[in-house]
Amino acid sequence: AQRLLRLEKGHIIVGQDTDGMTQPDEVSLRWAISSKKPFFVGSKSVDILSKSPLERQLVGFELGATSPQPKEGHLVIRNGNIVGSVTSCEYSPTLNKIIGLAYVHPEDAVPGTTVVIRTDDAVHAHARVAKTPFYDPDNLRQAL
């Protein structure tokens, strides 16, 4: 249940939705890097990588409740090429749809874009890139 709740809120799990090669910009975490610090461990790498175009972007995606459900590790295909993979995916009974996070080509990272995910038995699921959080984007449920 806890994993589904974090996914509905669009929260990433380091080590599941990221790997040792993940850049802050790929997972929209540039805000977590202080520009006031003159140096920190990894600052040189972040500076170098920020000057290069992104090769992938972590996005939220959604599918209808009856679509084949992708599994973690299933591939995202673009023009016949592998461009990413699913990092998290669950059926949300609250939203009555399948939601997940996946790396896609940066040009496909726009909400509303359709991406192809290769599921079991080579079935192609057509997912829609969605804004995160999927549930309660204004945090109204947290207000007392």
Written overview of the protein:
By secondary structure, the protein is mostly beta strands. It has a single domain, classed as 2-Layer Sandwich (Gyrase A, domain 2). The protein contains two helices and six strands; from the N terminus they run ααββββββ. A hairpin with a 4-residue loop joins strand 3 and strand 4. The radius of gyration is 16 Å and the shape is globular. The protein starts with a helix and ends in a 14-residue tail after the last strand.
Question: What's the alpha carbon Rg, rounded to whole Å?
Answer: 16 Å
Name given to the CATH homologous superfamily: Probable tRNA modification gtpase trme, domain 1
| CATH fold label | Gyrase A, domain 2
Instruction: Tally the helices.
Output: 2
Q: Which series of helices and strands comes N to C?
A: HHEEEEEE
**Biggest sheet character:** 6 strands, antiparallel, barrel
- CATH architecture type: 2-Layer Sandwich
- CATH secondary-structure class: Alpha Beta
Give a count of the beta strands, DSSP E runs of length 2 or more.
6
Principal-axes geometry comes out as: globular
Q: Whole-number average pLDDT?
A: 91
What spatial order of strands do you see in the largest sheet? 1-4-3-2-5-6
Helix/sheet category:
mainly beta
Helix content: 10-25%
Strand content: 25-35%
Total number of distinct structural domains? 1
Q: Key terms for this structure?
A:
144 residues, mainly beta, Gyrase A, domain 2, six-stranded antiparallel beta barrel, 6 strands
